[in-house]
Amino acid sequence: MIEVPLVDHSKTREVPQRRYFWVLATLLFLFCLRVLGQILVAFLHVSFLPPMEEWMSGLLPYPGLLTAQILIIALYGKICLDFARGRGFFLTPRRRMGTGLLIFGALYLGVMILRYIIRMGLYPHERWAGGCIPIFFHWVLSSFILVLGSYHWRTTQRPAKPGIGRRLLQAAAAVAALLCISVWATYQTGPSLLAHQLGIRPSQFAVRAQKGATLLTSDGVPLVADIYHPQHTAHTPTILVRIPLTKDFKNSLFASMIGKMWAERGYTAIIQGTRGRFGSGGVFYPLRRDQQDGIETLQWIAKQPWFDGHILTWGGSAFGHTQWAIADQAAPGPSALMVYFASTNFHDMFYPGGAFSLDSALSWAVRSHGAKDQADWPSADEVKQAANGFPLLDADRRATGTDVSFFKDWVEHSDRDAFWEDIDGQNRVQSLKAPVLLMAGWYDPFLPTQLNDFMRIRQSAEPGVAGRSRLIIGPWTHASEVTFPDGTKAENFRRQSLAVSLPWFDENSGLATPPPAASSPIRLFVMGKNEWRAEQEWPLARTQYTPYFLSSARSANSITGDGTLNALAPTAKEPADSYAYDPLHPVPTSGGAMIGPAAGIARQNDIEGRRDVLVYTTPSLNQDVEVTGPISLILYVSTTAPNTDFTAKLVDVHQDGSAFNISDGMLRRSYQEAQLPSAAEKVFEIHVDLWPTSMVFFKGHRIRLEVSSSNFPRFDRNPNTGNIIASEVNVISAKQTLRHGPEYPSRLILPIIPVQKTQFQQ
Fold first, then answer.
1. Catalytic pick among 478, 652, 708, 709
2. Considering 256, 317, 509, 708, which one is annotated as catalytic?
3. pLDDT tens, residue by residue, 549-598
4. 654 is catalytic
5. Does residue 727 carry a catalytic annotation?
6. In a 3-state reduction of DSSP, which class is residue 393?
7. Cα(452)–Cα(460) distance, rounded to whole angstroms?
8. Does the annotation count 606 as an active-site position?
9. Which pTM value belongs to this model?
């Protein structure tokens, strides 16, 4: 401890400068030893000192760090020289300088001590000194600042007591400093706190972040990645995420949190931007070049010194597609995939039943067009306003003021042609080389194609792949949660996708001892009862496919009609139900399976009041009825249009009359043969597939079916002309007729699950 003689405060204090010199010189010498040691490791590769990663804090690459260290040595050397000579700028007493240095040095040292405590508390491999060399020498640097501040404080007079304004300013500065430290500490501990909340195993390793790692593709485009390395490891499995999003603060923070969370548990996490996104070069065009860029990324990973042979992939929607694009690769190839809200069949997601998923496509185009993504999804009103015009092909221009190339391509390629083969590939399920965990949502537009993928995997993939693949279906829209009719919100999807990721990766990487293998490959959320249940297959083997026949004595037009759904087949002839479908006044969308904020559960009562909506309802249920599985509708229809649509919606009617959508579907097809001059009014049997679901209709509720010819803008409008819809600007109204009765047994086929045989479990 430095001894300072007591003096009168009315005079300038006297202190032993020589003692300060020796303390400062000793601290500078220690720091020089640190810089020298790192130089020996970096350039001479000596083996008697700790490896390079233990010298790095991860904030700067070494060339920049070395430059900063040299500048610090020069500055500290000048300070020591002033003390040695007894004169110079840094020797002249300055009270304010001393105060500032003491405050800064104390904060600096406090933060570094806190950082050391965090590392020791979270990461077993960091105890007691491993990986903490940078922190120790931050202590040296902060101590130098504190000693210098102490000199200036002791050699100057104590200032007069500051006024109230200055004290308030000082208090505000102190609060701001503490707030910044709290934010920093939260960021440092964030991945571990998140993992704890998700029930994931404890962290093991400190993490070194490698920002801006670049792979140059075969056609010269730089693909940029942030890589999170677990320290004190030689070879690790790799988690690869190829992300087609803008590198803004929110996405960067999210990527950093999950990358560090995985790396703290022994994985090297790579967050790589696809072309034109997240720092990568090239032009952004969703879903294109994913295969070739993905293959080159796999080959690049295989050459890295830390690679242990296991690659795990993660992501959904467009970056779920980046996984399917490389699912057929091996050595190197994925050891396991985790895909949510994406399938091998983007064409059928965009064209379910032949109609265009306009709301989903337009929401995607509005948010993702241009050099960077928009901050938020467009509102439902913004999408509807842009969609409400002709031709369909110009909806992107109406929404954004410019042409969006990928939207126009989606609109113009309604058939499965070479454009979609380039995106979806061929037989990706059959060529799958690794097990896949699929996460789907009851109100997500990918649900039918995801379920088809899962069924094909279980039936035709390699036994080791088929038997180890898993399926989770939850109460989610596209990467979000539904709000139930009682106002409660479903469990957070993003948390769930992360909670299941690490156990799945552990199971397939050999990194950690996995939990006992799940006896049930499927977990699904049963709505209504709002409970999770384990199942063995899809569709469920115990399903009873039960027809509910459409009937009306007068008219089923709107909720005021007398349309009914009956479990018994009709025996007497019934009049047909008819309505006019006018493309200029379509039935508006109210909830459903879409990309964007309009998706989910919504009240249907206003929709059911329209005359162009046929409504068929069961009597009040005398017991709970569970509907779990694929839903189909067989209709006998006639139309005056050469090409038109028929829509269907399954609805849960509560005891107070409130009606909420459960599932819907659409069929677009040609009826040209009905337009021949010699043809009488021709009746067509059509099959409409509704979205699969799992829903318990409670005792006292009613099951309802809505039939119409539009659900806009969830689907685009059919102009009824029979011309190319993408470019059509003219429309005609059509008379739509639906027949029912013994000759035309129109019926809704529901997958009923015997409630008494089910066992719900969390």
1. 478
2. 317
3. 999 999 999 999 999 999 999 999 999 999 999 999 999 999 999 998 99
4. no
5. no
6. helix
7. 12
8. no
9. 0.89
